[in-house]
Amino acid sequence: MPDGSAGTGETGGTGETGETGETGETGETGGTGGTGGCHPALPARPSVPYADSVRRMNGTRPSRRLEGRYEEKGGCMPTEAAHSVSLSLSPGVAREVVAAAAAAPSIHNTQPWRWRLGAGGLTLFADVSRRLAVTDPEGRQLLLSCGAALCNATLALRARGLVPRVTILPDGDDHRTDPLATIILAGQRPADDAERALADAIGPRRTDRRPFDGRPLPDGAVARLRAAAEVQGAWLTSLTDPDLRVQVNVLLSRADWIEQHDAAYLRELASWLRSEPAPDGVPCGAVVAAGATRQAEFPLRELNLAALADPPPASEAGVERPGVLLIGTDADTAADRLRAGEAMQRVLLTATSLGLAASPMSQAIDVEGLRDRFRAATGGLGQVQMILRVGHAPAGAEPLAPTPRRGVDEILQLAD
After folding, report:
1. Contact 153/99 with Cβ under 8 angstroms?
2. Which residue in 37, 91, 322, 400 has its CB near the most CB atoms, within 10 A?
3. Residue 38: left (phi > 0), alpha (psi -120 to 50), or beta?
């Protein structure tokens, strides 16, 4: 993967294209600064007690280091970055980076992001016209989606040997009008093997809603996925306690029932299902049931309206028991939600690099009133932002086709 050239002017226009390009490296440390040089100060993280039930899930506190970039909310630039402040991002490289960012997942494939390249760097905005008013009234999922895109963008720069410096919410925390993040170039450093592995995972990453087989997760996989979340300033824990799995199953089933009996939700879902080729939304071919209702420990959000009206017969296969991961943050500000999206994407890319399949099960924290109950059921483990099922796709399963994406010209504005 060629690095973009950089010096005192623009970066070169070469590099990866489309859906490849991600990586990360050293950056943020604890809440008050870092080692070596003048790192930007970060706000202290509130302390959230872990209940005994959560300790049984082997949850750990994250070390808030952002690998692959420098993050700033005030303070001074790191020493290493200070030597190359005149670097700028060329339109050609910006287009490739935004194309990589657009490969990020989003609820119902809404792709609720916009980018602008100007003298101040590459800036990310929320496209609030694409917020799901019924499913996501507060814009929490919108921010997670934008965070996933931000993760791809910063890592795409690292794959080119460029060090991005990211400022989160530079103009305030109103995600409806203010920029979500701004990226400038802070220097050059070659990507390492781990970064390139993540870069290579952006293209093949898929949301895989198919049944998983019964193979357990590989040894060390959960630790790798947890570390991926912690790099982005979030936490991750694996849901292994049998009693907690039952409680989560109950809440997911309750949320699923509520959504399936909500006419406004069903109308909104129908508006994002695509029976013809389109640059956004969920292709109907990706959600049609495979002839039988799966037997699974946890229900997935039903996207197949035909199956709701006429459920297919139950499968005789064994019960699917996937790995279940909770990703969250200590607080629940707009910045926390954005970071949770970055963490989610890095976890998904890590899972892809490990040969694992994954998909979200977020209905229990999307449905109004159930998110607090979900937090109580998991022992008050901070703010759960995403639930993922992780496992192995069936042996011999065909690779999934990519879902469509909007073109770069539609989501990137080049300043005059």
Report:
1. no
2. 322
3. beta
The Cβ of residue 204 has, within 10 Å, a number of other Cβ atoms equal to 15
Helix (H) or strand (E) holding 389: strand 383-391
Nearest of 41, 39, 42, 61 to residue 50 by alpha carbon = 61
Paired residues of 125 in beta bridges: 114
The radius of gyration of the chain from alpha carbons, rounded to an integer in Å, stands at 21
Give the separation between CA 105 and CA 344, rounded to whole angstroms.
10
The span from the CA of 104 to the CA of 131, in Å, is: 16
Per-domain residue ranges for the chain? 237-391
The pTM score is: 0.80
In the beta sheet, which residues pair with residue 123? 116, 182
**CA–CA separation, 181 and 121 (whole Å):** 10
**What is the arrangement of strands in the sheet containing 70-72, beginning at the earlier edge strand?**
70-72, 162-168, 181-188, 121-126, 113-118, 412-414
Instruction: Quickly tell me which residue has 């939304």 as its tokens.
Output: 281
Dump pLDDT digits (tens) for 58-110: 444 444 445 456 565 433 344 344 344 458 999 999 999 999 999 999 999 99
Q: Are strands 113-118 and 412-414 parallel, antiparallel or unpaired?
A: parallel
CB 25, CB 69: distance < 8 Å:
yes
Dihedral of the alpha carbons of 211, 214, 216, 217, in degrees to the nearest 10: -20
Considering only residues 18 and 414, tell me which one the structure prediction assigns the higher pLDDT: 414
Amino acid in position 137: P
What pLDDT, on the 0 to 100 scale, is given for residue 294? 60
End-to-end CA distance of the chain: 30
Q: What is the DSSP string of 322-374?
A: -EEEEEEESS-SHHHHHHHHHHHHHHHHHHHHTT-EEEE--HHHHSTTHHHHH
Tell me the CATH class for 237-391.
Answer: alpha beta
* Residues 6+ away with beta carbon under 8 Å from 142: 107, 110, 112, 126, 128, 130, 131, 132, 136, 175
140-159 vs 91-101: helix crossing angle, rounded to 10:
130
CB neighbours of residue 79 within 10 Å = 12
For 169-225, the pLDDT digits (tens) are 998 888 888 999 999 999 999 999 999 999 889 999 999 988 888 899 999 999 999
The rounded distance, in Å, linking the Cα atoms of 391 and 214 is 8
Query: What is the rounded CA–CA span in Å between residue 114 and residue 406?
Result: 11
